[in-house]
Write a structure and sequence with these properties.
With 397 residues, the chain is α/β, with parallel strands linked by helices. The chain folds into two domains: 209 residues, Rossmann fold (3-Layer(aba) Sandwich), CATH 3.40.50.2000; 178 residues, 3-Layer(aba) Sandwich (Rossmann fold). 45% of the residues lie in helices and 17% in strands. It is built from 14 helices and 14 strands. It has an eight-stranded mixed sheet, with helices on both faces. A six-stranded parallel sheet has the order 11-10-9-12-13-14, sandwiched between helices. Strand 7, helix 6 and strand 8 form a beta-alpha-beta unit.
Length: 397
């Protein structure tokens, strides 16, 4: 074990800069908990995507914005600031938020300064055909990310499925650590959804199937709309409440009109503080995505005691119990989705499944255990780097 550490983190978390336009998700407080648990100071460089941000100092957390508009110049500034901090502050470990651009910068700094590199992989993006097909940059990132995780001293994943995936990519199992992110599930307990239900139910509707998230291509909300049409033909008491905004909002509303949907409401974007009330108001949560990172929205739904229906996402089995706390259906499978929604809401098992999900995720995301695991990951990554250097030196003799 090492003593007090100094961690150089490479991040996109603009909420650390007190940006009022960011979702208020207590990011800084979460970082402080990590700092206390690991007995580590954090020097965080944030890809700020704009200018005029100021440095932030809060306890043992120091935050430095890149203050560059373009991504290339911002990444270059991130590397420059990182180099200066390493030379000045005696950094113990570099911690990259993802294995793509931030991982690349972290790898450059690792090679230049001989420091351990820890990389977060909180996604199921690697080799995902939908993600790769979206753009050339995604295909480039897919290969870049594989190279970075193989070169890192530690790879932090959130579930066993992703640990197995790292093994398939050639990462040594001893360098892959399961360490779930901190999630404040307490905010989903004892919350009333009565106001939301009063606003949206009635007019023949007595159940709510909720979607909450971005309206973007990878979320495939169009499949949910087709499931709503299928459901209407069999059960006219189920309202589909779609909460969120995004680039596909206009086309999805046009699609709903073309399908003649009378059981769908687009509620728009809501403040982050109101998310628990919407989960509390729902009777089932539905996630139709083509790909996701670890689907934390399922965790939040389960923490609210709600059953879920989701598509075949690689990491979904790690945060739900198929057949016990909800159901997994094929991607694009709107008929199967409608069938399972009706089965949950009319089959008498909704409360039982919701409680099973709640118990499961509260165990997975126990706050004390998550903090202990994060501390272990940092120390193990540094130890792994030291062992690697000793092995390299021995092979030269």
């Amino acid at each position: 074990m090492v003593g007090r550490m100094k961690i150089l983190a490479l991040s996109s978390e603009r909420a650390l800069l007190n940006d009022e336009n960011s979702i208020m998700n207590n990011t800084l407080e979460r970082m402080k908990e990590y700092s206390d648990a690991a007995d580590a100071d954090f020097e965080v460089i944030v890809h700020s995507k704009g200018e005029g941000f100021r440095n932030v100092q809060s306890g043992r957390i120091a935050v430095y914005p890149t203050n560059r508009k373009g991504p290339i110049s911002s990444y270059s500034e991130m590397k420059r600031i990182g180099t200066a901090l390493i030379r000045k502050n005696g950094i113990s470990c570099i911690f990259a938020q993802d294995p793509f651009a931030y991982g690349e910068i972290g790898h450059m700094l690792k090679k230049q300064h001989g420091l351990p590199l820890l990389v977060n992989v909180f996604s199921s993006f690697f080799d995902d055909p939908y993600w790769k097909s979206e753009s050339l940059i995604n295909r480039v990132f897919n290969e870049t990310g594989k190279r970075i995780v193989r070169a890192a001293d530690g790879v932090r994943v959130e579930c066993e499925t992703e640990k197995r995936k790292m093994g398939e990519l050639g990462v040594e199992p001893s360098r892959v650590f399961v360490s779930p992110v901190l999630v404040d599930l307490g905010r989903f307990r004892s919350v009333s959804g009565a106001g939301v239900r009063k606003e949206h139910l009635g007019r023949g509707f007595d159940r709510i199937a909720l979607y909450l998230g971005r309206l973007s291509k990878e979320k495939d909300v169009g499949t949910l709309l087709r499931a709503a049409k299928e459901t209407w033909e069999k059960d006219r008491g189920i309202l589909f409440l779609i909460v969120g905004s995004g680039p596909e909002e206009g086309s999805l509303k046009c699609m709903a009109a073309e399908l003649g949907l009378r059981n769908v409401v687009f509620a728009g974007r809501i403040p982050y503080s109101e998310v628990p009330a919407y989960h509390a108001a729902a009777d089932v949560f539905v996630l139709p995505s083509l790909y996701e990172g670890i689907p934390l929205v399922l965790v939040e739904a389960h923490a609210s005691g709600k059953p879920v229906v989701c598509t075949e996402l690689r990491d979904a089995p790690d945060v739900m119990l198929n057949g016990k706390s909800g159901y997994v259906v094929p991607q694009k499978g709107y008929r199967e989705m409608a069938e399972k929604i009706i089965e949950i809401l009319r089959g008498g098992r909704a409360e039982e499944m919701g409680e099973a999900g709640r118990a499961y995720v509260l165990g997975l995301y126990d706050r004390k255990k998550c903090l202990e695991k994060f501390s272990e990951v940092l120390h193990s990554t540094i130890a792994s780097a030291k062992a690697g250097r000793k092995g390299a030196n021995a092979s030269k003799r």
